[in-house]
Amino acid sequence: MALKVYINGQLYDKQDAKISVYDHGLLYGDGVFEGIRSYGGRVFRLEQHLERLWESARAIRLEIPLTRQAVSEAIYQTLRANQIEDGYIRLVVTRGAGTLGLDPNRTSDPQVIIITDHIALYPRELYERGLELVTVATLRNHPAALSPRIKSLNYLNNILAKLEGLQAGCSEALMLNFKGEVAECTGDNIFLVRGGALYTPPLDAGILAGITRGVVIELAAEAGISVHEVPLLRHDVYVAEECFLTGTAAEIIPVVKVDQRTIGSGSPGPVTRSLMERFHQLTRSG
Ligand code: PMP
Fold it and tell me: Which CATH number fits domain 124-284: 3.20.10.10, 3.90.550.10, 3.30.450.20, 3.80.10.10?
């Protein structure tokens, strides 16, 4: 059975799910999106993802042509049509088809697209052994130019960093902001552990307000672990006892090497592992 893809109220077979080549989402990356997960048939933190999507859309003056309730129902409808219980949801809203100029006022019909699929994770052994990162030369977008808080279809900043990371043999890359502070990775937020406390860059370091980042901050509070959202330098990463990344697709993944420096003992540490366990409980136990 072909996977069904939702576009503007209708479900299409995957090979028939198409939009205009004049869509400004394609021509200019003019649009917004969310990456979401479902566990056991329930969409995880859906309200927060919708809130962030609506904020991204507001920032680029894109009016989403559906209510949040309607988008939420469409997501469940698409998951059911594909019989997906544990999966990944890509929710996209494009500016719509227009003329060959930039002017968003000359577009019509924003496209609301929902793709649901099975998730391709990092290999399991990386969760057990930990990832290696490299800091790349491509800086995270300057927030005064294009706020990293907007989850837009224009991901070239991250893709350039990803290419550099891959070139260095690393599947994730650490990006700095224009001040030279640690920002985030190409598709994940970063946390450090030191003296039993968590450290992560604040939102005004110019990062995406990751939903998983927020969940980890909540889980840490429940576990009595203090969390400091403070500017961090590469030096802080090098001398951390533990390091991990958070993201919808990756969940929580340990980092054991950064720029050829071994982090802590060189294997996933106890704080990371206990947060991974708590995250697993939260998402897999109903
Ligand atoms: N930073 C960037 C640049 C991302 O693309 C993502 C993934 N959406 C994240 C962080 C993690 O965010 P979330 O936990 O909401 O998936």
Answer: 3.20.10.10
